[in-house]
From TrEMBL:
Keywords: Signal
Protein name per the record: Fe/B12 periplasmic-binding domain-containing protein
Any single GO BP term: cellular response to iron ion
Region (Disordered): 37-58
Native species: Desulfitobacterium hafniense (strain Y51)
Similarity remark: Belongs to the bacterial solute-binding protein 8 family.
Length: 332
C-alpha cells in the first residue's frame, strides 16, 4: 500500500490540466528541436554482425537521453520514479511494476498500476522535490518536464532519463532505450516486435487506397476547436491510418474556426476529450452550422480513447488500429 496518496478532483481537474498540457505541448515541441541534438541520443550497442541483439545490460552503464546529457548508472535500477505516464506504460510492459516506487495521479494503465507505488505525485510536472528525495530513487524518468526541474535532480546526483518521443519511430527508440537502461532488453524486443507487426498489418490494409479515395478527417481535441496539425503524433497516426488530416496546413497544436472546418468538409470526425466531457458526439452532431458536413450527415463521428492515441507507449499502435477501423471499417 502507498505510504501517502494524493488524489485529484477528477473531471474539473482533468479539464484544467488538459488546457495546460496543450500549451505545454506547443512550447515543448518547439523547444525540443532546439535543445536536443537528436530525439534519442546514443542508441544501445549493436550486436556483432550475424548475431542477435545483445540481451543483457552491463553496469556501470552510461546512456544519453533526449536532452543529450550523458548519465552513468552504477547498477541496475531497483527504485524507479516515473513522472511520465507514457513511460510508465512502457516500464510496465517491460515487467517492472514492482520497481515503480513513485508514480503520478495520471498513471491509470494498466489497471492497478498505482497499487505497488510508495507515493503518488499529484503534480506530475512540478512534483514535491522533498518527497521525491525521501523515496531514494536510483532512476527518475521524466517526459514533458522543464530543464530547470531535470537539472535540479541531476544536481542532487539523481540519475534522470528524460524521454519525450513525438513520433511512432521515436516511441520505438524510447522502448528500446528503457529496455537497455533497465536490463530488460529481451522484453523490449518482444514488445517492439508486436507493435511493429501490428503497424505493418495496418499499412498492408490501407496502402492500396487511392489518394482521391482517402478519407478527410477532422481531429477535435477540445470543444473550443483545438486540433492536431502537422508535426503532431495524432497527425502521423491519421496519415498512417490512410486518412487526410484537414488541419495539416497548420503546425503543431492550433485552433481552427467553424468556417475552416465547414469549408474543408471532413468525412470523419474524431474527438479525444470525452474523459472530461459527456455526450461529446451528440454535442458535435447538434451544432447548427455543421449539419451539411459529410461526417455529421453520415453519422461518422467517433470518440477516441485519448490516452491510447496520445501516449507514446505500447498502446499507441492500438490507437492507430482504432483510427484505421473508424476510417475504413470495410477493410478490417
Amino acid at each position: 500500500m502507498p505510504l501517502q496518496l494524493e488524489r485529484s478532483t477528477k473531471m474539473n481537474r482533468k479539464k484544467q490540466a488538459f488546457t495546460l498540457l496543450i500549451t505545454l505541448w506547443v512550447t515543448l515541441v518547439l523547444l525540443s528541436g532546439c535543445n536536443s541534438p537528436s530525439q534519442q541520443g546514443a542508441a544501445p550497442p549493436e550486436a556483432p554482425s550475424g548475431q542477435d541483439t545483445i540481451q543483457t545490460t552491463s553496469y556501470p552503464l552510461t546512456y544519453t537521453d533526449d536532452t543529450g546529457v550523458a548519465t552513468t548508472l552504477e547498477k541496475e535500477p531497483q527504485r524507479i520514479i516515473c513522472l511520465a505516464p507514457p513511460s510508465t506504460e512502457i516500464l510496465s510492459a517491460l515487467g517492472l511494476d514492482r520497481k515503480l516506487i513513485g508514480l503520478t495521479v495520471y498513471d491509470n494503465y494498466p489497471v492497478g498500476i498505482q497499487e505497488n507505488a510508495e507515493y503518488i505525485f499529484e503534480d506530475s510536472l512540478n512534483p514535491n522535490l522533498e518527497q521525491l528525495i525521501q523515496l531514494k530513487p536510483d532512476l527518475v524518468v521524466t517526459g514533458m518536464h522543464k530543464d530547470s526541474f531535470i537539472n535540479s535532480l541531476r544536481s542532487l546526483g539523481i540519475p534522470v532519463a528524460h524521454l519525450n518521443p513525438q513520433s511512432l519511430e521515436s516511441t520505438y527508440q524510447t522502448i528500446e532505450k528503457l529496455g537497455y537502461i533497465t536490463n530488460t532488453q529481451e522484453q523490449a524486443q518482444a514488445v517492439l516486435q508486436g507493435m511493429k507487426a501490428k503497424e505493418q498489418a495496418i499499412a498492408d490494409k490501407v496502402e492500396a487506397i487511392k489518394e482521391s479515395e482517402r478519407v478527410r478527417v477532422w481531429i477535435e481535441v477540445d470543444p473550443g476547436l483545438f486540433t492536431a496539425g502537422a508535426g503532431t503524433f495524432l497527425n502521423e497516426l491519421i496519415t498512417k491510418a490512410g486518412g487526410i488530416n484537414i488541419a495539416s496546413d497548420v503546425q503543431d497544436w492550433a485552433q481552427y474556426s467553424e468556417e475552416q472546418v465547414i469549408e474543408k468538409n471532413p468525412q470523419v470526425i474524431l474527438s479525444t476529450y470525452s474523459y472530461y466531457m459527456d455526450n461529446v458526439k451528440a454535442t458535435i452532431a447538434a451544432r447548427p452550422a455543421w449539419q451539411a458536413i459529410d461526417a455529421v450527415s453520415n453519422d461518422r463521428i467517433y470518440d477516441l480513447d485519448s490516452d491510447m492515441v496520445t501516449r507514446s507507449g505500447p498502446r499507441i499502435v492500438d490507437g492507430l488500429e482504432t483510427i484505421a477501423k473508424a476510417l475504413y471499417p470495410e477493410r478490417f
